[in-house]
Design goal:
about 400 residues; alpha/beta; Rossmann fold; Alpha-Beta Plaits; 2 domains; ten-stranded mixed beta sheet; two-stranded antiparallel sheet; 16 strands; binds iron/sulfur cluster
């Protein structure tokens, strides 16, 4: 695939320290992160329609660290309005409507206060991709294509299937809810395939600006059942891959350990290597994170040749297990499971191990944190996972 980005271009990433969600501090940090890139005027002109795309995964209060914090959204809204832009907040959550998730997340209140509507991505449009892309077309939210400016507002979180969910993965929310299970079905057994889809979708949608909420992140059992972890930072940039590469490095992981970053490096759909990234603002040394807990039992096949990965996959791939004491039998997981591998029986929710494609959508969606991702039999027998959950 020919380079989607110039091979000589450097990508600028700003990193600003911010401890806590106090309004003044957040406003200052978000503004500084954008000022370092040239100011909001570089991205938003008077009269332009601006889509803000936060992470609205599931209905969850802001202090749980599942959704982009409303104070970050408010700070961006304030900047956009000052620049004369006409903002709208939109997403297609994993479960429920954007209105419902935004209300629980405190984002609807912020929107109301700032005169900004919330939009559920329902109306779609087909987007053709460049000839050299693996995926020929995407059906995406019309608003994401037809607005003048897209501002991506991800949150730093771990992710059971993809290791981390950062800027590239956040744009998956522009695929409307009814189409997501189809992608998970196709991609569930092959993270490379899913990662390639995510980077190509991101390259097609090309958010003009990404501002990342890393003030309080989620570690451990992300993206919805992990623990909050203050990282005290806001990052911004125009290349999602460069941003994700920088954050992965800050978290103490090799940059190419993130599936999407690796796919983008192979296909030149983003900039990921440190020599091509210009850092502005705070020093990475000051903000480096120690012992960030990655999802337990995550990916022992990483780094192995693909034929061995295939052979070992079923024996070692982590699988979802229901914690019956926590489960409230809301059936969200049954509804969302792409291959219909879950059902309710007399004893509770059961999972068909043959049908399960290990997409972990159920864990992502469970409001009770009742789905644990457990190591495969072989890896447990060999003790491969002992202590691999944190670093
Ligand atoms: S496991 Fe979670 S999502 Fe599934 S039924 Fe139980 S509480 Fe609901
Ligand atoms: S049981 Fe969970 S991990 Fe397995 S296919 Fe269904 S949603 Fe995906």
């Amino acid at each position: 695939m020919p380079g989607y980005f110039s091979t000589t271009m450097k990508s600028q990433i700003s990193v600003v320290q911010c401890d806590g969600y106090d309004q003044d501090r957040v406003f200052q940090a978000v503004r500084r992160s954008v000022d370092l890139l040239g100011g909001i005027g570089r991205f938003v002109r008077p009269g332009q329609r601006v889509l803000l795309k936060p992470n609205l995964l599931v209905p969850s209060s802001p202090e749980r660290g599942v959704v982009t914090h409303p104070m970050v959204v408010k700070a961006v809204l304030e900047m956009v309005k000052k620049a004369g832009g006409v903002p709208v907040i939109g997403d297609s959550p994993g479960f429920g409507t954007a209105h419902r998730v935004a209300a629980k997340a405190g984002i609807a209140q912020v929107g109301e206060e700032m005169g900004c509507p919330i939009l559920d991505f329902e109306d779609t449009v087909e987007v053709k991709t460049p000839d050299d892309f693996t995926f020929r077309r995407f059906e995406v939210a019309r608003e994401a294509v037809e607005c003048d400016v897209v501002i991506n507002l991800p949150k730093i979180k771990t992710h059971a299937q993809m290791l981390l969910t950062l800027s590239v993965k956040n744009m998956f929310g522009c695929i409307p809810g009814f189409a997501k299970p189809g992608w998970h079905l196709k991609a569930g057994r092959d993270r490379n395939y899913f990662a390639r889809m995510l980077v190509e979708l991101n390259a097609v949608l090309k958010p003009h600006l990404t501002i990342m909420d890393g003030i309080v992140a989620m570690e451990g059992r992300g993206p919805s059942s992990g623990n909050t972890r203050p990282l005290d930072m806001v990052l911004a940039g125009t290349d999602c891959v460069a941003l994700d590469s920088t954050v992965t490095h800050l978290l103490g992981l090799p940059r190419d350990r993130l599936w999407t970053t690796r796919a983008a490096m192979e296909d030149h759909t983003g900039i990921a290597t440190p020599d091509r990234i210009e850092l502005l603002g705070a020093s990475l040394v000051d903000l480096a994170v120690s012992r960030f807990e990655i999802p337990q039992a995550w990916d022992v096949t990483w780094g192995l040749p693909s034929f061995i990965q295939g052979f070992l996959r079923d024996a070692v791939t982590p699988r979802p297990v229901i914690d019956r004491d926590r489960c409230k039998e809301c059936l969200n997981c049954v509804e969302v499971c792409p291959p219909n591998a879950m059902k309710k029986e007399a004893e509770g929710i059961v999972i068909d191990p043959e049908g399960c494609i290990r997409c972990y959508c159920c864990q992502e969606i469970c409001p009770e944190g009742a789905i644990e991702i457990r190591a495969g039999l072989l890896s447990r027998a060999l003790g491969i996972f002992r202590g691999c959950g944190s670093r």
